[in-house]
Inverse folding.
């Protein structure tokens, strides 16, 4: 059984400026769609439609603060920015290329390039002229907010480099063995599922081909482009969205029966970001919803296809550049020098404790060893009701 391919609601300059599209319809697309970033290259000056809708392009080379007097959205078309809400308690997130954020009406906000971006380009979309008013007096407050971590966007850069080197994929094309086994053991029937850190879509497309209603999210835009191409080739219809798994904002649904994190959580060593992710997953899961997690427990890189000789690697230290094996289009392999990205190893007992602290109860420990992650903890968890 396969799901029918869905209409792909890409957000483009043409769709944003379409005069026959009501604001309510555009607002829905902006909130849950994916962005055709190339189309916005033709936007050189602000445009205002007869209905009051305004679209403006802005280069972000330094901090900018503004207030929002009506409905407005920010589209990142290149680079990455930090979007900081300057309410009573300032909060922020890194927003990457291809992502859209709804701006909070009546609240001051700040935008600045992220730590590894010199200049970003954003497009502001509002339903009335002048909805965004610059507020330079808020700049000192923005300056007090520490820079936000964006190291996990290094995976987006890695996918791009791997494709440039001639590899059609970074990951194996088959679904994760751990996922297939867990679904069988737990007797999971087709349902709504969110694939957290879906990468090139191997698990999302596998699930969609078996009748699941799938939303796959990732910050790695190059990988999501591959995921969409592969879904189209396979005739399946998951929804792929550029979203940060630590925030999970603006999703097409607010409840899922199943959530899977097959090797993404161990790429986030920061405890605050891990906690933010797990809290958000708990919010999104239906009562008694199932959460499947695959997480490296020791010897990071051991058993990876890209590291055929683990013992020769040397210190596995983030930032260190080592050779990684990639498979080319013709099936041959070559090596590509890539920096090691941050990661976290968690012994199974430690991971179970972390999940329990965030409202999940262990249903089954399916820990195994897979080519994808080496020595892996694989946990099936149930959402625990509040105060249980």
């Amino acid at each position: 059984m396969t799901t029918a391919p869905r209409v792909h609601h890409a957000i483009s300059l043409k769709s944003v400026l379409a005069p026959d599209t009501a604001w309510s319809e555009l607002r829905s697309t902006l909130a849950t769609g994916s962005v055709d970033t190339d189309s916005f290259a033709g936007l050189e000056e602000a445009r205002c439609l007869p209905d009051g809708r305004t679209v403006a392009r802005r280069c972000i080379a330094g901090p900018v603060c503004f207030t929002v007097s009506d409905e407005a959205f920010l589209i990142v078309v290149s680079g990455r920015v930090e979007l900081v809400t300057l309410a009573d308690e300032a909060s922020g997130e890194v927003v990457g290329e291809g992502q859209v954020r709804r701006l909070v009406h009546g609240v001051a906000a700040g935008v600045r390039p992220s730590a590894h971006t010199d200049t970003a380009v954003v497009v502001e979309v509002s339903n009335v002229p002048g909805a965004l008013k610059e507020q330079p007096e808020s700049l000192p407050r923005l300056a007090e907010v520490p820079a936000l971590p964006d190291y996990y966007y290094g995976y987006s850069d890695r996918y791009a480099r791997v494709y440039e080197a001639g590899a059609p994929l970074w990951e194996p094309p088959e679904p994760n063995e751990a996922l297939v086994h867990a679904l069988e053991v737990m007797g999971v029937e087709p349902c709504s599922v969110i694939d957290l850190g879906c990468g090139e879509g191997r698990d999302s497309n596998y699930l969609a081909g078996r009748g699941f209603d799938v939303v796959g999210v990732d910050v790695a835009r190059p990988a999501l482009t591959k995921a969409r191409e592969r879904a189209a080739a396979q005739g399946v219809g998951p929804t792929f969205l550029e979203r940060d798994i630590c925030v999970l904002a603006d999703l097409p649904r607010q409840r899922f029966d199943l959530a899977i994190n097959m090797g993404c959580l161990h790429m986030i060593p920061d405890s605050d970001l891990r906690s933010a992710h797990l809290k958000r997953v708990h919010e999104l899961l239906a009562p008694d919803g199932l959460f499947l997690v695959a997480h490296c427990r020791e010897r990071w890189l051991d058993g990876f296809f890209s590291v055929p000789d683990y013992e020769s690697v040397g210190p596995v230290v983030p930032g260190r550049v080592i050779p990684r094996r990639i498979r080319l289009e013709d099936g041959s392999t070559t090596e590509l020098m890539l920096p090691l990205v941050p990661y976290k190893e968690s012994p199974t007992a430690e991971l179970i404790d972390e999940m329990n602290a965030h409202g999940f109860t262990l249903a089954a420990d399916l820990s195994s060893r897979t080519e994808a992650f080496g020595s892996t903890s694989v946990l099936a968890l149930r959402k625990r009701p509040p105060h249980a």
